[in-house]
Design goal:
Helix content of chain A: 40-55%
Low-confidence stretches of chain B: none
Number of strands of chain A: 19
Shape of chain A: elongated
Shape of chain B: elongated
Number of domains of chain B: 3
CATH architecture of the largest domain in chain B: Sandwich
Number of helices of chain A: 19
CATH superfamily of the largest domain in chain B: Immunoglobulins
Helix content of chain B: 25-40%
Largest sheet of chain A: 12 strands, antiparallel
Structural class of chain A: alpha+beta
Distance between the termini of chain B: 25 Å
Mean pLDDT of chain A: 83
CATH class of the largest domain in chain B: Mainly Beta
Largest sheet of chain B: 6 strands, mixed
Low-confidence stretches of chain A: 541-554
Distance between the termini of chain A: 37 Å
Radius of gyration of chain B: 31 Å
Structural class of chain B: alpha+beta
Mean pLDDT of chain B: 85
Strand content of chain A: 15-25%
Number of domains of chain A: 3
Strand content of chain B: 25-35%
Radius of gyration of chain A: 37 Å
Order of helices and strands of chain B: HEHHEEEEEEEEEEEHEEHEEHH
Number of strands of chain B: 16
Oligomer: heterodimer
Chain lengths: 665, 309
């Protein structure tokens, strides 16, 4: 590879390393926008092979120093986190070096500042993509430095065998990555993981569960495959698709266009009870991800209690209070990127046993704008049924059978409910839920709209909920049982409508992320002990020697013992073979050439006599004026030089010598 | 005693941390401290990678220093304080080496050569070296250093390849020109009749029998009707005998040797014959490049006679 191309490759690899390192902090969302802009502009200019700061070192360094003063002054004033400030400054230095004359020292500085940025990224995030950034940095940085070292202190214009060097460097990167993993697994953890920052703003919220449900517009969110929530449920339902309602908010007031809640805010507490506790409650350890984008707590229908709320921010995690808006929602007292909390829900099939509502008018009130046709339709469907639940079920069946589900609802209409029921006759979950609630109210039944999610997909030991699982449904009050859910939305349209391929991708990523969190981010001394115990634990049954003779199957070692033994055997086999091979005298490198020469001679129909050496054969051919005599003599001489003169035959020359014998065949 | 112990316990490889390597180690230590203090597992992961990279770097650099076959090709002549070309024939018996630097272990010889890569085909490389002092120089160890793969450490292996190089005295010594009278005129060099030099034309005379016909001036001979020979002025060749006092030692001896080397070079260049008397050795006056080599060689050995025996 010639010098200019080699240098270009090296610089591209260097820039790639800088980008990988910067990616580790940039994707955390903690880096200020100006630092991101500075880096990406410098990166783009560097990729274009333009170095505007060449020869302008002094003033550019002065600017850097001023930037350092501003950044760390901001830290002093409490405006910027120290780690974020250090990463931002390292980013600026990297950008400065990228735009400077590319020399060996500049390249090294780029790699070292990138390494600092990467370390900052490790401190700022705990996400899976950090592993990708680390691997990318390891590969590009090592290859770039390797090429730099290969070029050495003097500029070599000619060709250099870059490929073998890159192969050797790749081996080094592989060794380093494997060694890094081994170190990670085996190095004793002597302290708690108290500084890990597990939450980053990511790409912002998607669901944005708001304090009102407004009819009209499309339902784009239903096609989003983004995961907004993870939950560990106890007792474990052990099903792949949970298909349950996750309640976030309930709305009691409808003004003809939108639903609102009228809950009275209570003061923040550590835990909030919505009902009296019951036996066999379903516990949920819930993590609301940054994609959730709201402060409302959700829980499996019907939540009874929330507690242990922790908010996660880029600066760390801390407890937060819970604020209850009675009969509307529970939300976190403080804003954060994401949250974790525990929810307890009433087991399915159990009811609150509430006999009557204290404020019936609140749930039967109708806006004046509601068309009288709605009441007529409801009366026709309900007939004489006075049981609220059965009446609601009749209405829901009617809606499901006669109305279509669609996410395409262009344009604004004056009366969206009448438009849905009598004109368009298709809508999404909010239309179905509103229609059912309003129709129930027209018949004097207390009803409200609930918003949250429907679904729950198992990934590992957790259930995940996607943004597309966002849903609205109706609750009707049944005296003696409490609020009961009736969903008028067609079954197939309740959960996410995202593309299957996207769902598969996000599920796979989630599974990887789950593994990453469990095996890497939360890896601890306990895990190390568990690994050690698993390695040294005796076979089952061996510990209890006093027990009567165990069944033959109990004394059989576990499968992992066989696997470990097989692996150990393989390692010993390969090591022994390697040692034995190195102990045995290797054939001289020229012997291979002699074999090739003999094969070429055989193909040419020239046979060696018994005990005739190759040089004797060449002499015999020369004396008999054989047409191949010059070529054979030349090849023989090359072999003798290689064998006894210490002058190896280069592969090209070897091919040429043998080819000279072949044409005559 | 200490030297003997050190040579006995000499490590097979030596390693120097480069400037970049020092910064790398500082960052690694910082990451390590951060990981230990905070328990952040991702910092442990980065630390593991950084430490493993050091180990991998050691493994790869070791592979670069193995299976090397190197032979010195000594220069025809080398003078103290003047650059001379030292050549090395390098090859690998198997595999390939990268980023090698060859230098003599003997600190009397400065200079190195950089080789980007070495495979099984033999390559000859040239190092521009400078020897500090005259005399027989024993070359024993050849330092092979590599910074491959990451330039963090310079790992050195010393190959035992014994050779001896005779370093001539420096010839740039500033000294007075010897007076023409100090030199003795050679043979009939002082005979005024001997005018068969190559200098200015002195005149024409009739060619005597047996004289070289190549000196005939054909144009004038044709005019005169007889063979005329051109006579040209001849520069006188003198004999000089340089001496180095047997009793001189140390810097005085060095200075005298350098002076003698400088003088001999100048005199020989003018065509004079130069000889040398060092007390222990005497060289008869002679001229030509062969004599210069003999003189310089003799001067190089002065004071180092026991090393040659």
């Amino acid at each position: 590879m010639i010098a200019t191309r080699r240098t270009r490759t090296r610089l591209l690899l260097r820039d790639g390393a800088a980008l990988s390192a910067f990616g580790s902090v940039a994707l955390s969302g903690a880096v200020p926008v100006w630092a991101m802009l500075a880096f990406f502009i410098a990166f783009a200019i560097s990729i274009a092979n333009f170095r505007p700061l060449s020869g302008r070192t002094v003033w550019s360094v002065v600017v850097l120093l001023l930037a350092a003063l501003l950044i760390f002054g901001s830290v002093f004033r409490g405006g910027l986190d120290l780690v974020v400030a250090a990463c931002s400054f390292a980013t600026l230095v990297t950008a400065h070096r990228l735009l400077s004359e590319p020399t060996a020292s500049t390249d090294h500085q780029v790699h070292l500042t990138s390494l600092l940025t990467l370390a900052g990224g490790a401190a700022l995030t705990g996400e899976l993509w950090f592993a990708a950034c680390l691997a990318a940095f390891a590969i590009t940085s090592t290859l770039s430095i390797g090429l730099l070292v290969l070029e050495g202190p003097v500029r070599i214009e000619g060709d250099l065998p870059v490929r073998p060097a890159l192969q050797r460097l790749s081996l080094g990167v592989g060794l380093a990555l494997v060694g890094g993993v081994l170190f990670f697994v085996l190095f004793p953890r002597l302290s708690w993981n108290f500084a890990a920052r597990r939450s980053t703003p990511g790409f912002g919220g998607t669901t944005g569960m708001s304090d009102r449900v407004r009819l009209g517009g499309g339902g784009d969110i239903k096609t989003s495959p983004r995961i907004v929530m993870r939950a560990r449920i106890s007792p474990d339902p052990r099903v792949d698709n949970l298909d349950q309602y996750w309640v976030g908010r309930t709305f009691d007031t409808f003004d003809g266009r939108e639903w609102k809640g009228n809950g009275v805010e209570q003061r923040a507490r550590g835990q909030v009870f919505l009902e009296d506790g019951q036996q066999g409650m379903v516990q949920q350890q819930i993590e609301l991800l940054p994609a959730y984008g709201a402060r409302t707590l959700v829980g499996l229908q019907t939540p009874v209690m929330f507690n242990n709320a922790v908010m996660l921010q880029t600066s760390g995690s801390q407890r937060t209070g819970l604020v209850r808006l009675e009969d509307e929602e529970v939300h976190f007292a403080d804003g954060a990127n994401s949250y974790t909390y525990t929810a307890f829900s009433r087991p399915s099939g159990k009811y609150s046993g509430e006999k009557e509502l204290t404020d019936v008018a609140r749930y039967t009130r109708l806006p004046e704008t509601v068309s009288p046709e709605v009441a007529k339709l409801a009366a026709r469907v309900v007939g004489n049924e006075r049981n609220p639940f059965l009446a609601g079920t009749k209405l829901a069946d009617h809606l499901r059978s006669n109305y279509g589900y669609t996410l395409e609802l262009p344009g604004e209409v004056a009366d969206p409910l009448a438009d849905f029921l009598f004109t368009r006759k298709e809508g999404h979950c909010e239309h179905f839920a509103t229609a059912l609630a309003v129709m129930l109210r027209t018949q004097g039944f207390a009803a409200r709209v609930a918003a949250g999610f429907f679904g729950g997909e198992r990934v590992g030991a957790l259930y995940v909920v996607r943004a597309g699982d966002a849903h609205a449904w109706t609750q009707v009050f049944v005296p003696g049982r409490g609020w009961e859910t009736i969903d008028a939305t067609p079954d197939a349209a309740r959960s996410t409508q995202a593309m299957l391929a996207l769902q598969w991708l996000t599920s796979t990523y989630e599974a990887l992320e789950d593994w990453w969190r469990a095996r890497v981010v939360d890896y601890s001394f306990q895990d190390q002990l568990a690994i050690a115990r698993a390695l040294v634990r005796p076979p089952r049954g061996a510990a209890n020697d006093d027990a009567p003779s165990a069944a033959p199957t109990a004394s059989v070692p576990p499968l992992r013992a066989f696997v470990a033994a097989a692996l150990a055997g393989l390692v010993i086999f390969f090591v022994t073979r390697r040692v034995m091979r190195s102990a045995v005298a290797r054939p001289h490198p020229a012997a291979n050439f002699l074999e090739q020469l003999e094969r070429a001679l055989r193909r040419a129909g020239i046979a060696r006599l018994d005990g005739e050496a190759i040089e004797q054969l060449a002499a015999r051919l020369a004396s008999s004026s054989h047409p191949l005599a010059p070529a054979v003599t030349k090849a023989t001489r090359a072999y003798l030089f290689a064998r006894f003169g210490g002058k190896p035959v280069a592969s090209e020359e070897r091919g040429r010598l043998l080819a000279a014998i072949r044409p005559a065949t | 005693m200490f030297r003997r112990l050190r040579s006995r316990w000499k490590l097979p490889r030596t390693m120097i941390i480069t400037r970049v390597g020092r910064t790398y180690l500082v960052i690694t230590m910082g990451v390590g401290l951060g990981a230990l203090n905070t328990g952040n597992n991702l910092l442990y992961l980065v630390l593991g990678f950084l430490l493993s990279l050091i180990v991998a770097s050691g493994v790869l650099s070791e592979r670069s220093l193995r299976h090397l076959r190197i032979r010195r090709v000594l220069p025809g002549s080398a003078s103290a304080g003047e650059p001379f070309a030292m050549r090395y024939q390098v090859r690998r018996t198997s595999g390939r080496s990268f980023a090698l630097e060859l230098a003599e272990e003997n600190s009397q010889v400065a200079g190195m050569v950089w080789i980007p890569t070495v495979a099984q085909e033999e390559v000859t490389v040239r190092a521009d070296c400078v020897a500090a002092r005259r005399g027989p120089l024993k070359l024993k160890g050849l330092k092979v250093t590599t910074t491959f793969p990451l330039g963090l450490f310079a790992k050195t292996r010393v190959l035992d390849i014994e050779d001896q190089l005779l370093i001539y005295p420096r010839r740039g010594f500033v000294c007075d020109e010897p007076s023409e009278r100090e030199g003795r005129l050679l043979g009939d060099g002082g005979n005024p009749r001997r005018r068969d030099g190559t200098g200015d034309v002195l005149g024409l005379r009739e060619l005597s029998p047996g004289e070289d016909a190549r000196r005939v001036h054909w144009l004038k001979s044709a005019t005169a009707g007889k063979l005329l020979k051109v006579e040209r002025e001849r520069e006188d060749t003198r004999q000089f005998m340089l001496d180095v006092d047997e009793d001189l030692t140390g810097e005085a001896l060095e200075a005298r040797c350098e002076e003698a080397a400088a003088l001999s070079q100048r005199l020989l260049l003018r065509g004079h014959e130069v000889g040398l008397d060092t007390g222990t050795m005497r060289l008869r006056p002679a001229s030509g490049p062969g004599q210069e080599r003999r003189l310089l060689s003799a001067l190089a050995w002065v004071g180092h006679e026991e090393a040659g025996t």
